[in-house]
Predict the structure.
Amino acid sequence: MHALIDGVLTGSVYALMATGLTLIFGVMEIINVAQGILVILGAYFSYTLSTHFGIDLFLGLLITIPAMFVVGVVIERVFVARLKGPEKTAMSILVTYAIALVIEGSLNQIYSVNYQQLSAWYVNKSFELFGVYFPYIYVYGFLLAVGLLSALYVMLYRTRFGASIRASLADQAAAALVGIDVKRVSTICFGLGVAITGAGGMIYGATNTFNASSGADLISRLLTIIVLGGMGSLGGALVAGILMVTVEDIVGVVWSPIWSTMSFFIVLVVVLSLRPQGLFGKLSSRVA
Amino acid sequence: MAASTLLMIGSSSGAASRGHAAMSPIKIGVSLSLSGDFSADGIAYKQGYELWAKDVNAAGGLWGHPVSLDIVSDASSPTQVVTNYQHLISVDHVALTFGPFSTLLTLPAAQTAARNGYALVEGAGGGPSIFSAKLHNVFDVTLPVAYDLAPFAKWVTSLPASSRPTTIAYATSNDPFTQPVVDTAASLIAGHGIKTVYNNVFPAEATDFTSIADAVVASKAQAVVIGSVDVPTVSAFMQAFEQAHYTPKVIIATAGPDQGAAFIKAVGAGNADGMMVPNSWFGGSKNPASQKMVKEYIKQYGGTAAGVNADIAEAYSVGQVMAAAVKATGGFNNAKIISYLHSGVTIQSVQGGVKFNSVGENLAQTAYTFQWQKGGTTFVEVNPVGDKGAVKVLYPKPAWGK
Amino acid sequence: MKKWSNLWWLAGLVVALVLPLVMTNPAYRGIAVYTLLFTACATSWNMFSGYSGYVNLGAAVFYGTGAYSEDLLANHLNMSGGAALFWLVPLSGVVAMLIGIPVGLVALRVRRHTYVVITIAIFFVFQLAATNFGFTGGTAGLTIPFIPWMASYFDVPFYYVALAVLIFAILLSAGVRRSRFGLQLLAIRDDEDRALGLGVQVAAVKLTGYVMSGFVIGMCGAIYAMKQGQIYPQFVFDPLFDITVALMCFFGGFGTLVGPIIGGVVLESAQQYLTVTYSSGGSLYLIIFGALFLLVILFMPRGIVVYVKDWWGRRQSRIESSQTAATAGVAS
């Protein structure tokens, strides 16, 4: 029971972090391995705002999210947009990896390698409901994740811009034919993906101790979430994120923590053998 | 680019020379992880070595020669560590070598040093794999890790039955240097009226400890032993405990609370109060050499005595042991240094006595247990009970956030 | 043109053969061994991923399996540290290939872009397995008997064994490229659906290519394990290895025969040398390395080999056109 609650609460935050990755892949066929370090960058933004300017963590997101959007747009315009040709996806991994190195090195220089954690009154407090303690930060994080993901959903399905993103998700060439500015859509998508990641970074930073090297540990989990959910599927990322944490927690409690991470990967391999496209993915026959 | 690299190789190997006139600087080679997974400890080690070099030079140098440290980074990679030590020895022509940080990197470093006939004096490679390799040239100045929790086990089992915890939980990382510590403690504590209610190993690479911490909470154990490897591990447990309003009577973690200011910064002083950790050294040690070192450290880097990382003392001790060997053998002959260090002599370091057995383990030291007290403002020795300088354990541990 | 390229290969071989005799400093010999190993891995990786377009970012699965096989075999056969351990190297390569069969069956069911990510996910399964299973020694890793050679000699046998493996990898890659099988891989890279339509047994071809590439990479892992003395799960199943090998191929020229060789030789030697020489400045070198890396990818996106060829071609045509212009001028 407790594992289930924890799975939903924590899993949604992982989903938030993975959403940017799956959105960017879905629209642009770019695998952004800098996602892990961008989470950490978001956490450091929140850290700076809260320690140096005394701005509340959640209030600070009003600054962090737009700032991360700009970071995303710059990365896309300067580097990612230049990638073309059939090896674009593989090249994108190398380019974003190099970007991750530069960001990691810079964060190390600025903040030193000492571990940090975000603090606020609600970070270590909890409330009791039906005999179970709910940590505020996890509940707030869950609400934030649900809020942002719903906003994203509304934007995708209820606005014209969303329609053009979805068209690009389905088929870039066709989208361009009907007059959608695919380049602009790509830039904004990348920005959005990174911006959402910044919000995930704040929650990550409040629930984990981090330094610049923590980004490398995150990226493997985020990648497996989007593979399980189906590459490019937003709903898939949410389900897979929650599934991952729940499976790990249940195995950890019932059996042994040592097998918890492993169990998730076993689920992944089984799913992939039966459904190579992931839980909610579409079987792509697109030729690059 | 390939061609220019080769050119650089040619010119730099010709430039250095081995011979040194009297009073020419003596080079000591070290590879440390200044970036990557071990970077926090790597940087602390660098400070420790530099502090030692500064002291030695102020006192007239090593056997009359000023010491210059040749420190390169291995980015926490064992491949790079091999290249680095070989480079230090055969290109930079260092006279002596000091160890890197972490056992994981110490073995490849020690083997490379062994092939070149160099002694590798180190402070961080205390894992069993170092000593089971039976290399003749490796010397670990720090107590081997397995018995770290013995004084704690002795203290907790000797508490009067009325106040002794009745249940205990163990959660340990499957790290090769942490698991033996916790296993030894569990075997020492078993059968003293303390029931084990939870005992589990979690993967070393775990990033999310909530479910494990929740399981410990559910066990309602009165005592908790966390086999942590660093600050993030222990802070994750502490956070989950506080959120669940669960305060055991005693919590000891194998690593994390020993990191001084870095620990306090991550968890907050209020929460640090009562947290215990085993170690071979602490900033408040009464050892006069240690007090002198701490004073100099604070002068140079700021902070408080309690905030000085134990890595600093380990690195400093490495320098002291090497200095004693150089002095005793009258020079920088590594073969002589190796046989001197194997001779059974006891050398004094800031961490206490150092005496090596045949595989380079230092069994002369005792382990201590330390605790954060007075609202997390002081870090004091509490075990072994009755030791000079040991104060009373803050027991039971105060509630979180007070 | 053909003749010239043969001469280049011959010259490269001679240089490689005499290098350890000229370069006697063990520090540089050590770097040379790592360089040969990485170059062999890059060449073999390119033989599948470069020709077929299926970018494998889990090549460390082979490398780690090879390394673990070497140590496990040595320990089970109670061998002592010495040259005899080299006999286990090809055997470890075979083990890596065998492991590659089920992995390939799962991973190769999806198309290229998804395949990239799945290889990464499967890679992590292996890393976790090595960390958590008992027979792999867990996080403590495995040790191989200490080889008691002196530093002045130690790297020489490793150098020639690694060189032999590299030559084998190059010959294999060249052979595949000229064979019918190689043409099928290239057809898949150009248009998989069309290749299928033309009757290419796409699934079987892909699996064969994938498994074949595992042999050399597994052998390199085994040599690394021998040289290193001790292996840990996170260092032989290393995500950096995956990225480094791919980078070498893209840097030199993806899908070309020479590209991975140039990429491997330049990047590995430069990286090892730069780290040991300039790393005292903390994280600064991370920033510099990342930035350099970005510049190369952005300005030479198709690799050095293609870039130089294009540049040469443009130069030639410019000379030709200016000559034509000159002749035209004279004529008029």
